[in-house]
Amino acid sequence: MLKVDGVSKSFGSVRALRDVSLEIRRNEVVGLVGENGAGKSTLMRILSGTMRPDAGELSVDGRRVVLSDTRRANEHGIAMVFQEQSLLLNMSVAENIHLAQEKQFTRLGLLARRRMIEAARVHLAKVGLEVDPTVKAGELNFAARQMVELAKALALEERTDAPLTILLDEPTSVLEAKDIDVLFARMRSLKSRASFLFVSHRLDEVLAISDRVYVMKDGMVVAERASDASTVPDLHAMMVGRDLHSEYYREARQAPPQGHVLLEARGLSVQGIFRDVDFALRRGEVLGIAGVIGSGREELTRTLFGFLPQTAGSLHVDGAATMLRSPSEAVAAGIGYIPRERRTEGLVMDLSVAANVTLAKLDVAMSHGLIAHARERAIAADWIRRLSIRTPSSAQVCRNLSGGNQQKIVLARWMTARSHILILDHPTRGLDVGAKEEVYDLIRDLSAEGIGIILTSDTLEETIGLCHTILVMRDGAITARFDAAAGAKPTQVALLEHMV
Amino acid sequence: MTFDPMQARLNRRHVLGGAAGLMAAGLPSRLFAAGDKPTLVTSIRSLSNPYHAVWKVGADAFAKKVGLPNVTLVTEANSEKGIADIRAIIAKTGGNMVLNVDPNNTPDARPIVEACAQAKVYVVSWWNKPADLHPWDFNPYYIAHIEFDGVTNGGYITDELFKAMGGEGGFVALGGMISDSAAIDRRKGMMASLGKTPKIKLLDFQTADWQSQKAFDITSSWLTRFGDQIKGIWAANDDMGTGALEALRAQGLAGKVPIVGIDGIKAAVEAVKAGEFVCTVTSDPYWQGGIGLSMGLQASQGKFDPAKEPKLHREFNAKTVKITRENVDDYIKTEVQSHPDIDWSNLWDRVASPIAYS
Amino acid sequence: MPTLETTRAAAGAVARRPADADARPPARRYRWRGRLAEVAPLIVLVALCLCIGALSPAFFSVRNAIWGVGNQAAIPLILAMGATPIIVMGSIDLSVEGVLSVGAMIVVLLCTNDSNAHDLGWWGPLLAVTACTGLGLVNGLVHVGLRIPSFMATLGLWFVGLGIGTVALGGSAVRVLDPRIRAVAFERVLTFPMAVWIATAAFLLALLLERRTRFGRYIYAIGGGEDIALLSGVPVKRVRILAFTVAGFFTGLAAVVAAAQLGQANTTIADGRLFTTVTAVVVGGTALTGGSGGVVNSLIGVLIVAVLANGMVLLGISPYVHEAVQGLMIIAAVALSIRRGGSLVIK
Predict the structure, then answer these.
(1) % residues pLDDT > 70 (chain A)
(2) For an interface test with B, which of C77, C94, C157, C162 has the most B Cβ atoms less than 10 Å from its Cβ?
(3) pLDDT above 90: residue B78
(4) pLDDT of the residue at B16
(5) pLDDT single digits (tens) C23-54
(6) If we measure between CA atoms, which residue out of B15, B44, B7, B13 comes closest to residue B236?
(7) Are B158 and B234 in contact (CB under 8 A)?
(8) Burial annotation A405-437 (CB, 10 A radius, 16+ → b, else e)
(9) Contacts of residue A12 in chain C, CB cutoff 8 Å?
(10) A with C: 3 or more CB pairs under 8 Å?
């Protein structure tokens, strides 16, 4: 049994953990929920040995332990499956599973490669993954890599007598529904071998898989519940301190679109990827595209932003046939793109808020061919006010801002560029509940302004809640088209039928 | 003595190679179809420095005079390439050739000489060879090894500088690269002369890595540090000397502070004429380029037997040409504006002293 | 667009911190260290001046300011103005020495000189700058057009430049005999030589480009994240080509000043320039990883390098110590410019 007793951790004046106590019993799945910044990640880091607490104790089976590094944590049976996967994609699955543990396979300083592969096969069998241990990790898809990570964690049971505790940090955030089911099935079957600490933003999942749930808020554990005695709204209320109300997706603000067609696709195809896509995006419309990985929906959004020019069919912007050969051309045509990876694709982190806002259309801040800094600051200040961006000033470097505020700056950029079509690629990924709601408000605001939005989302629920129209894709083709007017929303099951 | 082999070797340009060098390095095969006529082969480091460029001019002049085919190989400071090219041309000519070589590096001399002796090719080497390798060990084919004495030259220009300073006052000195043997020898010569002249003081010694620009910068700083205490500037080569001269010129001091250098580059010779330099010294690469081939050709034609020459003719420091106010006009007339008419048959008139091994 | 509902403001700022907030050092310490890294080069420069000045009073003389520091910093500064935008972009231009040789060669061969009969006066410098700008353009086109990493593309042009210089000059030094060209370096205006004024003009031009033009903004965007710049519609390829062209222009300007200052051109005229230029830029606080720093940093960096070189001569420090000091300086500068905590792995 892993026990955390009165653990605190501060960073300067910020108290990330305050007197946190919890326990993970043998053969148990424990859920841990809380908003971003509630202290979940800090707790995970302390348990995995990458961070030391300022105060408090950890114990395993009643014996006090000090987890000074990952290796020591491993010795006490604790292993972590990382959110950003920690596999080396240039190395084989077997090499990854045994990374830094090769000693058991060395004889006279040489690696017994075959024994290593055999051992890897055993571990892979535990998680039910049928892959050749000699293939490179990079050749596996995301879900399979996650399973390899799990197998890697399970390999620990051969090296320690301590009971095994596996920490899962947001394992489902990037998995498709089918893969999540597989993961949960494995976790259930592995409960006889190990305990799990499961962290996720998706409260329904947490309730589905966990035996007990701890709720964290502001660095403290505010509640402990048995899963079968809790509901999603319960947990949500405890996390944020209020209820998840019915107006979550701002349905009341969903107004019917206004006729004029902004973007139209006719028979749009990219050879071998998707085909014959037809749709018309009207002013103020939110058009959702649903589909599993490989359905072609990601590629379709890429085509709409000029990354992947179509090989057949046509695209019409404001009625004019257009071929988008690069993102620059898409920007020039009035299309904006809000990527899912803000850190690597959304903002130039070392540039100021003002510079990021004007990046797509610097003209607005230019006078006589030169940048007028005062004008640029004024434009940025205006957006900071209108979008309630929390930043000390427009000169602040974006790196220091929170995810939700960064997302708003990306949006301000496209509004500045007068984009009338926005592609939102998983806009709420990695945001906490509060920040998500702000994004939903924003989407309604944009829609009210007459901006056309194309949305791909992490959850069907979100897609259904936000969109006027939903296209469902499967195997590169559109399989269904739903009207999702306010008050007449389709069900998730209805969509799912056409997705798989 | 002019452009130093060491200096050229440590220069990155030569290490990495230049386009012109690559062009010159190609072996034009038509030259080997010259029948019974021996081929005159020169192997030098590169054509992008003035020293070896003039060397080649001398070699070409000699070849033209005797009417023989003539090939220049360029090592581009790559020892393997240098040796391989020589082996290749020995094979192509079937040994019907003579070789005048400035080995890229000290150890290179042995495999080159061995390859020549085996193919009965007469060879003359310059500057670099191991101390235990001697021409008389490979009779008769290894005719001679010739160097120039850095200590003597360093001392000579120092004496000239002190004379120009009137035998008293302070001076500053610009050295070549710290680890460079030519730079070390020249400095040694300077220090020896300094030790004999108590009224003269060395204000500061700095290294400018043989470069004009660095010498310019250092001299500019010296002028603020020492001001008019500087009565003379000693430079281990002319490039640095001219850099110092331009620094003086910038502050209106050109011609007022005497400078000496080594190499005999054109800018320095003209500075001597203008009274801005006291003197410079040259090893006369034009002569080097021709005389080495001449030795080989005469030996191969049986006009003399190297084995019967005295040891001083087989391994020696050669005389340098000193350029001062007195002879600069003649020098410009015969050496700069046109090329001198050298008596290539007079093989030993520049023998100065035996090479001392330290 | 209406203001957003902010009912959740009451939920507290703690919950609003970004996902990995708990892994990050607290904001105050972070900022403090960030500021220190920003002003460190300036502190180093001031400290250096004070130390040298204390040991050698001549350091603070007008003569030294002009000839010992100002005039010596002129060419490195002009070169750094070209190198900085490229380094901010996260690329590197290795062709400096080759391009500079070509420029200097054109200047001397076209003005009155001791090698040929040309007497084209100002056409020489003009054509030199044009040719160098053209070579910069070639750098950019090769790098962008053929998708060759900048260090490879510019490495190629380095040798092409040296090759051209070697062929044209035939390995010898050619002297400038046109007093107008020499005046480019030595004509004094308000007691400072022309070279210093040209360098000042180059700095102001580079500052204008960096702070007030699209180009300046875009190089930071590319250096900070090329994907993001691309997604925002920044014409990345054009900006890259332009940056190398601008570098060629500044290198050409430096070539004119170098030829004028030394009164001659030979194939070794540019030796060591690449190293000192990159050193100055990095010492000034512009990270080789791109996205930060700028021409003001480079000005400080150039002055640090120049003051150090000048100071070592003024203090009569043994030449054996010089290179060691320069090496240590680079390590210190790079250590300061790395963002701590950003990455655990140092490659």
Answers:
(1) 95
(2) C162
(3) no
(4) 40
(5) 333 444 445 555 676 788 899 899 999 999 99
(6) B7
(7) yes
(8) bbbbbbbbbbbbbebbbbbbbbbbbbbbbbbbb
(9) 25-29
(10) yes
